[in-house]
Amino acid sequence: MEHKAGFVNIIGNPNVGKSTLMNALVGQKLSIITNKAQTTRHRIIGILNEKDYQIVFSDTPGVIKPAYKLQENMMNFVHSAFKDADVLVYMVEVGEKGLKDENLYNRIKETKLPLMLLLNKIDLAEQDEVMDAIEFWEKELPNAMILPISALNGFNMNEIVAKIVDKIPDSPPYYDKDAITDKSERFFIEEIIREKILKHYKKEIPYSVEIEVEEFFEEEEIIRIRAIIYVLRESQKGILIGHKGLGLKRIGSEARKDIEKMLDKKVFLATPIKVNKNWRNDDRQLKKFGYGS
Ligand SMILES: Nc1nc2c(ncn2[C@@H]2O[C@H](COP(=O)(O)OP(=O)(O)O)[C@@H](O)[C@H]2O)c(=O)[nH]1
Ligand SMILES: [Mg+2]
Question: Which residue minimizes the CA distance to atom 28 of ligand 1?
Fold first, then answer.
Protein backbone atom coordinates (compact mmCIF):
# COMPACT_ATOMS: atom_id res chain seq x y z
CA MET A 1 0.00 0.00 0.00
CA GLU A 2 1.09 3.56 -0.68
CA HIS A 3 2.41 5.54 2.25
CA LYS A 4 3.04 9.29 2.37
CA ALA A 5 5.21 11.23 4.78
CA GLY A 6 6.38 14.78 5.12
CA PHE A 7 7.53 17.65 7.27
CA VAL A 8 5.35 20.66 7.99
CA ASN A 9 6.85 23.67 9.70
CA ILE A 10 4.70 26.24 11.45
CA ILE A 11 5.89 29.82 11.77
CA GLY A 12 4.33 33.16 12.68
CA ASN A 13 4.24 36.03 15.13
CA PRO A 14 4.20 35.34 18.88
CA ASN A 15 0.82 34.39 20.32
CA VAL A 16 -1.03 33.70 17.05
CA GLY A 17 -1.74 30.12 18.15
CA LYS A 18 1.02 28.01 16.59
CA SER A 19 1.41 25.75 19.61
CA THR A 20 -2.35 25.43 20.07
CA LEU A 21 -2.59 24.31 16.46
CA MET A 22 0.14 21.70 16.68
CA ASN A 23 -1.33 20.24 19.85
CA ALA A 24 -4.79 20.14 18.23
CA LEU A 25 -3.47 18.41 15.12
CA VAL A 26 -1.48 15.84 17.02
CA GLY A 27 -4.17 15.41 19.67
CA GLN A 28 -1.68 15.76 22.53
CA LYS A 29 -0.37 18.59 24.59
CA LEU A 30 3.25 18.78 23.46
CA SER A 31 3.93 22.48 23.29
CA ILE A 32 3.08 24.62 26.27
CA ILE A 33 0.57 27.38 25.67
CA THR A 34 0.10 30.65 27.48
CA ASN A 35 -1.06 34.11 26.48
CA LYS A 36 2.52 35.39 26.81
CA ALA A 37 5.00 35.87 23.98
CA GLN A 38 8.01 33.56 23.83
CA THR A 39 6.29 30.67 25.54
CA THR A 40 7.82 28.37 22.93
CA ARG A 41 11.61 28.48 23.05
CA HIS A 42 12.60 25.36 21.15
CA ARG A 43 11.62 23.70 17.97
CA ILE A 44 9.23 20.97 19.04
CA ILE A 45 7.95 18.29 16.75
CA GLY A 46 4.57 16.63 16.92
CA ILE A 47 3.85 13.58 14.79
CA LEU A 48 0.46 12.73 13.31
CA ASN A 49 0.29 9.05 12.41
CA GLU A 50 -2.42 7.52 10.28
CA LYS A 51 -2.40 4.21 8.49
CA ASP A 52 -1.31 5.63 5.14
CA TYR A 53 0.52 8.79 6.11
CA GLN A 54 2.76 10.40 8.71
CA ILE A 55 2.95 14.17 9.10
CA VAL A 56 5.76 15.62 11.19
CA PHE A 57 4.75 19.07 12.42
CA SER A 58 7.27 21.39 13.87
CA ASP A 59 6.30 24.21 16.20
CA THR A 60 8.74 27.10 16.40
CA PRO A 61 9.17 30.16 18.63
CA GLY A 62 7.30 33.28 17.54
CA VAL A 63 9.27 35.71 15.44
CA ILE A 64 10.86 38.47 17.53
CA LYS A 65 13.78 40.84 17.31
CA PRO A 66 16.46 39.18 19.43
CA ALA A 67 17.72 41.11 22.44
CA TYR A 68 20.04 38.46 23.84
CA LYS A 69 21.73 35.31 22.66
CA LEU A 70 18.98 32.92 23.74
CA GLN A 71 16.58 34.82 21.49
CA GLU A 72 19.09 34.80 18.63
CA ASN A 73 19.28 31.03 18.90
CA MET A 74 15.47 30.85 19.09
CA MET A 75 15.30 32.72 15.77
CA ASN A 76 17.73 30.23 14.24
CA PHE A 77 15.07 27.60 14.90
CA VAL A 78 12.66 29.75 12.88
CA HIS A 79 15.04 30.18 9.94
CA SER A 80 15.75 26.46 9.88
CA ALA A 81 12.00 25.93 9.34
CA PHE A 82 12.55 26.65 5.65
CA LYS A 83 15.19 24.02 5.15
CA ASP A 84 13.57 20.68 5.62
CA ALA A 85 9.90 21.40 5.04
CA ASP A 86 7.54 19.86 2.52
CA VAL A 87 4.90 22.39 3.48
CA LEU A 88 5.38 25.72 5.19
CA VAL A 89 2.51 26.86 7.37
CA TYR A 90 2.43 30.56 8.06
CA MET A 91 -0.04 31.40 10.79
CA VAL A 92 -1.62 34.79 11.31
CA GLU A 93 -4.60 36.03 13.25
CA VAL A 94 -7.46 38.09 11.94
CA GLY A 95 -6.47 41.74 11.58
CA GLU A 96 -2.74 41.13 11.48
CA LYS A 97 -0.65 42.49 8.62
CA GLY A 98 2.41 40.28 8.50
CA LEU A 99 5.75 39.87 10.20
CA LYS A 100 7.72 42.86 11.43
CA ASP A 101 10.87 40.98 10.50
CA GLU A 102 11.10 42.02 6.85
CA ASN A 103 13.84 39.60 6.04
CA LEU A 104 11.85 36.62 7.16
CA TYR A 105 8.64 37.93 5.66
CA ASN A 106 10.36 38.19 2.29
CA ARG A 107 11.56 34.63 2.63
CA ILE A 108 7.95 33.58 3.09
CA LYS A 109 6.83 35.61 0.09
CA GLU A 110 9.54 34.14 -2.10
CA THR A 111 9.47 30.58 -0.86
CA LYS A 112 9.23 27.79 -3.40
CA LEU A 113 7.75 25.49 -0.80
CA PRO A 114 4.03 24.79 -0.82
CA LEU A 115 2.74 27.54 1.43
CA MET A 116 -0.35 27.37 3.60
CA LEU A 117 -1.65 30.52 5.24
CA LEU A 118 -3.77 29.79 8.29
CA LEU A 119 -5.96 32.62 9.44
CA ASN A 120 -6.50 31.77 13.10
CA LYS A 121 -8.84 32.88 15.89
CA ILE A 122 -11.81 33.37 13.62
CA ASP A 123 -13.95 32.55 16.66
CA LEU A 124 -13.08 36.04 17.91
CA ALA A 125 -13.90 37.85 14.65
CA GLU A 126 -16.95 38.96 12.70
CA GLN A 127 -17.67 37.38 9.35
CA ASP A 128 -16.76 40.52 7.37
CA GLU A 129 -13.44 40.88 9.20
CA VAL A 130 -12.61 37.34 8.17
CA MET A 131 -13.57 38.09 4.56
CA ASP A 132 -11.41 41.25 4.56
CA ALA A 133 -8.48 39.33 5.95
CA ILE A 134 -8.80 36.59 3.32
CA GLU A 135 -8.86 39.25 0.61
CA PHE A 136 -5.78 40.91 2.09
CA TRP A 137 -3.81 37.67 2.21
CA GLU A 138 -4.84 36.60 -1.28
CA LYS A 139 -3.15 39.75 -2.56
CA GLU A 140 -0.18 39.54 -0.24
CA LEU A 141 0.59 35.85 -0.80
CA PRO A 142 -1.01 34.84 -4.11
CA ASN A 143 0.53 31.38 -4.08
CA ALA A 144 -0.65 30.40 -0.63
CA MET A 145 -3.51 28.07 0.16
CA ILE A 146 -5.59 30.09 2.60
CA LEU A 147 -7.72 28.55 5.32
CA PRO A 148 -9.63 30.32 8.08
CA ILE A 149 -9.43 28.28 11.27
CA SER A 150 -9.89 28.23 15.00
CA ALA A 151 -7.12 26.18 16.57
CA LEU A 152 -8.75 26.62 19.95
CA ASN A 153 -12.11 25.19 18.85
CA GLY A 154 -10.63 22.70 16.43
CA PHE A 155 -12.42 24.31 13.48
CA ASN A 156 -11.12 23.23 10.03
CA MET A 157 -8.46 20.87 11.41
CA ASN A 158 -9.47 18.05 9.04
CA GLU A 159 -9.24 20.45 6.13
CA ILE A 160 -5.67 21.36 7.08
CA VAL A 161 -4.64 17.73 7.26
CA ALA A 162 -6.32 16.88 3.95
CA LYS A 163 -4.54 19.73 2.17
CA ILE A 164 -1.19 18.71 3.65
CA VAL A 165 -1.59 15.06 2.74
CA ASP A 166 -2.18 16.26 -0.79
CA LYS A 167 1.22 18.00 -0.84
CA ILE A 168 3.53 15.47 0.79
CA PRO A 169 5.38 12.83 -1.20
CA ASP A 170 5.16 9.08 -1.21
CA SER A 171 7.62 8.01 1.43
CA PRO A 172 8.03 5.53 4.23
CA PRO A 173 7.58 7.04 7.70
CA TYR A 174 10.47 9.06 9.13
CA TYR A 175 9.69 8.14 12.71
CA ASP A 176 8.30 5.09 14.41
CA LYS A 177 4.55 5.02 13.80
CA ASP A 178 3.93 4.98 17.57
CA ALA A 179 6.00 8.11 18.19
CA ILE A 180 4.36 11.45 18.81
CA THR A 181 7.49 13.52 19.35
CA ASP A 182 11.29 13.33 19.33
CA LYS A 183 11.75 15.02 22.69
CA SER A 184 12.42 13.15 25.92
CA GLU A 185 10.34 12.88 29.08
CA ARG A 186 12.98 15.01 30.73
CA PHE A 187 12.32 17.81 28.23
CA PHE A 188 8.58 17.75 28.90
CA ILE A 189 9.12 17.80 32.66
CA GLU A 190 11.22 20.94 32.22
CA GLU A 191 8.55 22.49 30.00
CA ILE A 192 5.75 21.73 32.48
CA ILE A 193 7.65 23.52 35.24
CA ARG A 194 8.40 26.47 32.96
CA GLU A 195 4.71 26.65 32.02
CA LYS A 196 3.71 27.05 35.67
CA ILE A 197 6.23 29.87 36.06
CA LEU A 198 4.88 31.57 32.92
CA LYS A 199 1.39 31.22 34.34
CA HIS A 200 2.04 32.69 37.76
CA TYR A 201 4.79 35.28 37.29
CA LYS A 202 4.87 38.52 35.40
CA LYS A 203 7.42 40.73 33.75
CA GLU A 204 10.92 39.42 33.44
CA ILE A 205 10.70 36.33 35.63
CA PRO A 206 9.48 33.82 33.00
CA TYR A 207 12.12 35.06 30.56
CA SER A 208 14.89 34.73 33.11
CA VAL A 209 14.35 31.13 34.11
CA GLU A 210 15.64 27.90 32.69
CA ILE A 211 14.89 24.47 34.08
CA GLU A 212 17.17 21.47 34.21
CA VAL A 213 16.13 18.03 35.36
CA GLU A 214 19.19 16.92 37.26
CA GLU A 215 17.98 13.65 38.70
CA PHE A 216 15.29 11.19 37.69
CA PHE A 217 15.09 8.04 39.81
CA GLU A 218 12.38 5.54 39.14
CA GLU A 219 11.49 3.40 42.14
CA GLU A 220 8.76 0.82 42.35
CA GLU A 221 6.08 3.11 43.75
CA ILE A 222 7.36 6.56 42.94
CA ILE A 223 9.57 8.58 40.62
CA ARG A 224 11.89 11.03 42.35
CA ILE A 225 12.74 14.07 40.29
CA ARG A 226 15.07 16.91 41.08
CA ALA A 227 14.75 19.87 38.73
CA ILE A 228 16.90 22.96 39.14
CA ILE A 229 15.28 26.31 38.44
CA TYR A 230 17.96 28.74 37.25
CA VAL A 231 17.40 32.47 37.59
CA LEU A 232 19.60 35.38 36.56
CA ARG A 233 19.61 37.31 39.84
CA GLU A 234 19.38 36.74 43.57
CA SER A 235 16.31 39.03 43.75
CA GLN A 236 14.45 36.79 41.29
CA LYS A 237 15.04 33.86 43.59
CA GLY A 238 13.17 35.68 46.34
CA ILE A 239 10.30 36.58 44.03
CA LEU A 240 9.92 32.98 42.88
CA ILE A 241 10.00 31.58 46.40
CA GLY A 242 7.41 34.13 47.47
CA HIS A 243 5.89 34.97 50.84
CA LYS A 244 6.45 32.08 53.26
CA GLY A 245 7.59 29.97 50.33
CA LEU A 246 4.08 29.74 48.93
CA GLY A 247 5.05 30.80 45.41
CA LEU A 248 7.52 28.00 44.88
CA LYS A 249 5.22 25.55 46.61
CA ARG A 250 2.44 26.32 44.15
CA ILE A 251 4.77 25.88 41.17
CA GLY A 252 5.97 22.56 42.59
CA SER A 253 2.57 21.11 43.35
CA GLU A 254 0.92 22.17 40.08
CA ALA A 255 3.87 20.86 38.07
CA ARG A 256 3.97 17.62 40.04
CA LYS A 257 0.32 16.91 39.25
CA ASP A 258 0.87 17.40 35.50
CA ILE A 259 4.04 15.31 35.56
CA GLU A 260 2.20 12.52 37.38
CA LYS A 261 -0.45 12.58 34.67
CA MET A 262 2.17 12.42 31.95
CA LEU A 263 4.18 9.62 33.54
CA ASP A 264 1.14 7.88 35.01
CA LYS A 265 2.92 7.33 38.31
CA LYS A 266 3.35 9.00 41.68
CA VAL A 267 6.05 11.66 41.61
CA PHE A 268 8.19 13.37 44.21
CA LEU A 269 9.41 16.67 42.79
CA ALA A 270 12.12 18.88 44.26
CA THR A 271 12.74 22.26 42.64
CA PRO A 272 15.72 24.06 44.17
CA ILE A 273 16.52 27.51 42.76
CA LYS A 274 20.02 28.51 41.75
CA VAL A 275 21.38 31.83 40.54
CA ASN A 276 23.10 31.57 37.16
CA LYS A 277 23.97 35.08 36.02
CA ASN A 278 24.77 34.50 32.40
CA TRP A 279 22.88 31.48 31.10
CA ARG A 280 20.93 33.48 28.46
CA ASN A 281 24.09 34.80 26.83
CA ASP A 282 26.59 32.02 27.26
CA ASP A 283 27.09 29.76 24.21
CA ARG A 284 28.22 26.77 26.17
CA GLN A 285 25.28 26.91 28.56
CA LEU A 286 22.76 27.59 25.82
CA LYS A 287 24.00 24.50 24.07
CA LYS A 288 23.70 22.46 27.22
CA PHE A 289 20.11 23.66 27.66
CA GLY A 290 19.24 22.59 24.13
CA TYR A 291 19.36 25.92 22.29
CA GLY A 292 22.42 25.14 20.19
CA SER A 293 22.13 25.42 16.46
N1 LIG B 1 -9.85 32.69 20.74
C2 LIG B 1 -8.85 31.94 20.31
N3 LIG B 1 -7.70 31.90 21.00
C4 LIG B 1 -6.69 31.13 20.54
C5 LIG B 1 -6.82 30.36 19.35
N6 LIG B 1 -5.65 29.70 19.15
C7 LIG B 1 -4.84 30.05 20.18
N8 LIG B 1 -5.45 30.90 21.02
C9 LIG B 1 -4.91 31.51 22.27
O10 LIG B 1 -3.84 32.37 21.92
C11 LIG B 1 -2.82 32.35 22.94
C12 LIG B 1 -1.48 31.99 22.31
O13 LIG B 1 -1.52 30.65 21.86
P14 LIG B 1 -0.19 29.81 21.55
O15 LIG B 1 -0.61 28.55 20.89
O16 LIG B 1 0.68 29.71 22.76
O17 LIG B 1 0.48 30.81 20.49
P18 LIG B 1 1.96 30.73 19.84
O19 LIG B 1 2.77 31.75 20.57
O20 LIG B 1 1.76 31.11 18.41
O21 LIG B 1 2.46 29.33 19.99
C22 LIG B 1 -3.29 31.35 23.98
O23 LIG B 1 -3.92 32.07 25.01
C24 LIG B 1 -4.30 30.49 23.22
O25 LIG B 1 -5.27 29.92 24.04
C26 LIG B 1 -8.07 30.40 18.63
O27 LIG B 1 -8.29 29.78 17.60
N28 LIG B 1 -9.04 31.23 19.16
MG1 LIG C 1 4.14 28.67 20.92
Answer: 121
